[in-house]
Amino acid sequence: MADNVSSGTSPWLIDFERYLKTERQVSAYTVRNYLFELKRVETLFSVNDSWLDLQHESLQAILAKLRRQGLSPRSLSLTLSSIKQFFDFLLREQQISVNPALNLRSPKQGKPLPKNMDIDSVTHLLEIDANDPLSYRDKAIMELFYSSGLRLAELAALDVVDIKFSQAQVKVLGKGSKERIVPIGKLALVAITQWLDIRRAIACEDDALFVTAKGRRLAHRSIQARLAKWGREQTLGIKVHPHKLRHSFATHMLESSADLRAVQELLGHANLSTTQIYTSLDFQHLAKVYDGAHPRAKKGGNK
């Protein structure tokens, strides 16, 4: 069967659609997505192009054009997947001898960033009415998350001795069993002190800093559930979880200091690139920092 792009939908696309529905038995949603992407590619064919004649370089040029048109990395990945599936079908039908899309790579997709809370929202969350042992404990937990940017696993693993009150620091065992020392803010220290006064009356199983009413080390899920509870009770309208407080800590630190390397150390990231992905500064703020700090960015420059 000849391929004839100019007549509209390629006959091979019609056969591919039939193959997906009958032999592969994929969902109608997937079939529709594949065909949409392939027809999008067809619109970028040159006058003499056909599916059976396309080469690796031609496909690269088409994908590059789609990128310039504003297609996101996620959409381009779907486009490329559709192309590869279609050429595999043409190989199966013995219409081509090699898949020209085989060595094409999907563009890297940026990692989705968790949304941080603004300072007013964090302040409102932390102003809970601590009037029972568990609320005092939870306030200390939330204050410490936001004060020091700890991971959930790091906070859950803390023992009482890890809090260094005289130095206003906490000793943290991070990923890869790497130990780091992180400062603790004054309000977090006050909240932890109040909690420890209550903890002394509990028969604890070990030296865990944060324990249940029965003295057992507080589990990850319990911490997550308590933060979500306080988010609802404080009517924030968003789901509060440990990583959101960690991300808010990093974002607010960067907005105030613009010291990416320092925030990297505080978060316990091995690579600076991880901190750059994890945090979210708007470009205007970055530009302002650059204009104020870089010698050749200042008005007049250096002569």
Report on this structure.
This protein is mostly helical and about 300 residues long. It has helices at about 10-25, 30-40, 55-70, 75-90, 120-125, 135-150, 150-155, 185-200, 220-235, 240-255, 260-265, 270-280, 285-295, and strands spanning about 165, 170-175, 180-185. A three-stranded antiparallel beta sheet has the order 1-2-3, with no helix packed on it. Strand 1 (about 165) and strand 2 (about 170-175) form a beta hairpin. Helix 2 packs across helix 4, helix 6 packs across helix 10 and helix 11 (about 260-265) crosses helix 12 (about 270-280). The longest helix is centred in the N-terminal third of the chain and has 20 residues, at about 75-90. It is elongated. It starts with 10 loop residues before the first helix and ends in a 10-residue tail after the last helix. The model is unreliable at about 1-5, about 280-285 and about 300-303 (pLDDT under 50).
